[in-house]
Fold this protein.
Amino acid sequence: MEKTKTENMTNAVEEIMNADSTSDAVRYEDAPIEERIIRAVQEMGFEVMTPIQQQAIPALLDGRDVLGQAQTGTGKTAAFGIPMIQRIDPDIEGVQCIILCPTRELAIQAAEELRKFAKFMHGIKILPIYGGQDITKQIRSLKGNVSIIVGTPGRVMDHMRRHTLRLENIKAIVLDEADEMLNMGFREDIETILKEIPENHQTALFSATMPKPILDITHTYQKDAVHVKVAAKEVTIPLVKQYYYEVQRQNKAEVTARLLDYYNPKRSLIFCNTKKMVDDLTEELKGRGYFAEGLHGDMSQFQRDKVMNGFRNGTVEILIATDVAARGIDVDDVEAVFNYDVPQDIEYYVHRIGRTGRAGRTGRSFTLVVGREIYKIREIENVCHTKIKARTIPSAADITAVKAQKILSKVMEIRNEKDLTKMTKIITDKMNDDDVTAIELAAAFLKMHMGEELEDIPVEVYKPRRARHFEDEKGRKGGRGRRDGKDDRRRGDSDREERRYKGNKSEKDAHHDRGGKSVKEERRKKERIGRDGNAKNEKGRVDFGVERRLREKREKQKSKKKD
């Protein structure tokens, strides 16, 4: 009898776990996963499963309760998210799955990941719900046939009490970071939710640790749960200086180029999450004149060998690759690693930056962060017990200075090592013939080798209706609508409220705001001063003689004092 796909995968998992090898990991297409989900996963750049996914996905797809023990950053979201999405029936109206997270940030992050997995699963809507967000908006969204909600326990409870969250069609519930939720005091809420949902449902619980309260919940609310466990690995970061840059998505290629110019590493590795991104970035950097080549799974062995040989011998200075394609790379003198895309798995991050800083050398890693990806940086810091420092993108002036210094250094080498007698005569003749200075000629030569001048990357200016954080020129954080500079989103400080505040200022307040001068005095002064700085007479016409007469009067007063 032919083995099922699930059985094949189970055997493969056992072999992998016994061998403890990542090189023979199970691919997504070898698992009993819907083809549309596999397509979405591959588009995200993932090719092989993490250990927790290998064990949890088949059990959850079979409808079993699962107790999963794994650290943050091991691919847990996909481990429970893929089966939950696949088991949703789009023909059934109402919420079919609840995923509980300890914080709003994790809820938002998990919801975003699930939406990516469900990209081609039409009819499946995923909604994050959490405290601090307008509940009326959430209520309206819940009326739009939501299939999966990802929320914090408190806000889920709010909707249950308001009867805005219907539970009759719930077929699965997931507790993500269960130990954290208990530590934050959500046990009572969690148990209330578990009691209220229909009896015939699937329960999945994921936790980094298994304290007694977790086991109590498991014994009470789970039936014959499959215990999947991934041993916590001691994740260590090599001797690498780690930095991150917050960027706009459309500026990632430009920022990468600037970092390459600014730090000028001799050999660099750039990691992307997808094959398409590898191809796009390779084309972009080659078009800018960099010695760059791409490496991914769709290339032939001949192409891969050619690229790798070039990278080893130095003809290729920049290698752009996916995580899977880069597994066989063993080059010691990589000076910098760039995370063009933030890796989904923390282990991938460690593997990536471990490509530099080898053999006792100090390496650098640079990660480009877009929007809410900053939370992934915080996860990496927590799990790896490391610090990833925020950096400002090098300005156009910074890049110009670095390029000029590089050229001038080469010029000084030639000056010190070569005979310049003939060249000196040519320059002297040119100075005499065209009446130019040596400085002007040197500046022109420098300009010629510098290329086109860069412009600073524009900073997107947000003008939202509600208060947002901003930074002033000194890097201090503040918010609109509050004099103390603190962001107060709960008060909903809007532009309208700010205008109302300004309009309600007393005459006395306005007087003090202008250093003791009244509003009328200020207005009169403005009326007297013309656009060109000349004074105006009482009829509003510019009087060019007023300033002269005032100046003469002041000079006479000074002379009297001297006398």
About this structure: The longest helix spans residues 396-417. The chain has four domains: 5-229, 240-390, 396-450, 509-548. Residues 396-450 form one domain. Residues 1-23, 459-520, 526-544 have pLDDT under 50 and may be disordered.
